[in-house]
Amino acid sequence: MSNDATKPMPRINAINRPFFAACNDSELRLQRCLAPGCGKHVYFPRVCCPHCGGGDLEWVAVSGRGTIRTHTFVRRPQHPSFFPDAPYHVLAVTLEEGPLMYSRLAGDVPEDADLIGKAVRVVFSQEAPGQKLPFFELA
Amino acid sequence: MSPGYEGVYVVGAGQTKYEKRTEKTVQRLIWEATDLALRSAGLGFKDVDGLGVTAFTLGPDNVTTMTEHMGISCRWLFQGLYGGASGISGMLQAARAIQHGDAEVVVIVAADAFDVASHMSMNRNPGQHDYMGPWGYGAANGIFAMHTRLYMKEFGATPEDFGRLCVAQRENAMLNPNALLRSRMTMDDYLNARQVADPLRLYDCVLPCCGADAVVLVSEAVASRLSVPKLRILGGGEMHNYPAEDIFGFSAGWELFRDRMWSTAGVGPEDMDFVQLYDDYPVMEFVQLEGMGFAPRGGAGELVRKKGGTVRDALPINTGGGQLSAGQCGASGGMIGVYEAVTQLRHEAGDRQVPGAKVGAVSGYGQVSYGRGLSASACVLGRE
User: Chain A partners of B199 at a C-beta cutoff of 8 Å?
Assistant: First the structure.
């Protein structure tokens, strides 16, 4: 169990290890379906393609660009380890390749900003010892 | 028309005291609500041959070990894994079992001994824990803040639109002795409350608490021996992971089964004496009102403006105050509306009774994963 000072980090497993390992190399990598006629990108990491049901997925680097679908300004995080960071903007980003990724906004943006539809690009933040995570900044 | 639920009767309901904290275990709460529901039906534990349980904090116990715990032998069991959609889902599945003779007396119960701390530390599914949690997403408040903001932008809804429903539910809660929040709340109180995750404020969010709700469903043969009001499931449905490819589509599937539900029931939204919605957040109540056909898409705010929401209004909504004002006992949030609907239809709702209530709708929603609830359910209940 984590103590209050340690941010809850993902449970790394055989399904998601390539994603979180790539984050530590400051690279955004997603799964992509190899089925003929599908070829869609997949996030969050899956054992199969949720678009076509195919079982062959490869890991590919993606652009790191996207647009904000919606967002919130979190004043009370779900875990005390985030209290020193709060308040901050939490984002739902539609990546250029299709999937939706939840993240946080990097950089200073007013708390009441309307960010829906704004273009963003990925940056990486060292959120815990041994784990960088993708954040997004306004493009 | 789809096959209905003929030959199945809802003959009892029970609700424990809702408390902010308790020394009671979740197993005890399950027993209490079950006992109250069976007593309200005129039945006892030895009559039960089917059990459905939903509780986030029950593990490593489960529905099967609960039969052992309570000393009942069952030939039909259900464990709700659909969060706040589980109660209605369990009722609909129990009704099919009863119709086919696989059970005669089924208790569907939900409970949790939840305080704010245990709510924060609960073990969450991968969608939330691994792909939202590390970014400090703010748990359910953060998720539904994002839905609320997008809904406001797309449909022009205002904070007052959501506030009107929250204020109406508080008025209902003031008439419910078991509601935890019973002091009057004005629109100013709502709008000036502390912000939690913009645009959500304090009174858009439920109060985690401890308690349990239960209902009893029986066969026609059993119902004929009981001297209690007989209620029927007139129609219903459920849907999971819909739409698969759009998390922010303001839907969880109610519009897919609503036509079947209403046609089986032989009534429509305009005939309802009340509706009990899954009110984890007011935006989801709007989505349910629209999904079930009470209002067109984006039109729930106007519906509440025109038809109210209090028990004295044209469309009473969450007549006991709902989770927003009565409290959310974890998984029991999926049963508070069922308990309230049965109590209204039995005409046992006291000061908050909707006069002459004969038919009402209940909806459920839950299993929040990657940014939304995956499960939707609803049913129409009527008094014979």
Answer: 72
DSSP codes of every residue in B86-113? HHHHHHHHHHHHHHTTS-SEEEEEEEEE
Nearest-CB residue to B146 (from A70, A78, A131): A70
Residuewise pLDDT in 10s, chain B (384 residues) = 578 999 999 999 999 999 999 999 999 999 999 999 999 999 999 999 999 999 999 999 999 999 999 999 999 999 999 999 999 999 999 999 999 999 999 999 999 997 666 666 667 899 999 999 999 999 999 999 999 999 999 999 999 999 999 999 999 999 999 999 999 999 999 999 999 999 999 999 999 999 999 999 999 999 999 999 999 999 999 999 999 999 999 999 999 999 999 999 999 999 999 999 999 999 999 999 999 999 999 999 999 999 999 999 999 999 999 999 999 999 999 999 999 999 999 999 999 999 999 999 999 999 999 999 999 999 999 998
Residues 121 through 140 of chain B touching chain A, CB cutoff 8 Å = 126-127, 129-139
CATH tag for A17-138 (out of 2.40.50.840, 2.170.130.30, 1.10.3860.10, 2.30.110.10) = 2.40.50.840
What's the Cα-to-Cα distance from B128 to each of A51, B312, B330, rounded to whole Å?
Answer: 20, 40, 17
Q: Which CATH superfamily hosts domain B8-118+207-383?
A: Thiolase/Chalcone synthase (3.40.47.10)
Beta bridge partners of A29: A61
Q: Quote the minimal CA–CA distance from B380 to chain A in Å.
A: 33
CA distance A95 to chain B (A): 13
Domain ranges of chain B: 8-118+207-383
Contact assessment for residue A93 and residue A135, using Cβ atoms and an 8 Å cutoff: no
B70 and chain A: CB distance < 8 Å anywhere? no
Nearest Cα residue to B87 out of B188, B214, B204, B221: B214
Please indicate whether, in this complex, the C-beta atoms of B129 and A11 are within 8 angstroms of each other: yes
Contacts of A90 in chain B (CB under 8 A): 135-138, 142, 146, 197
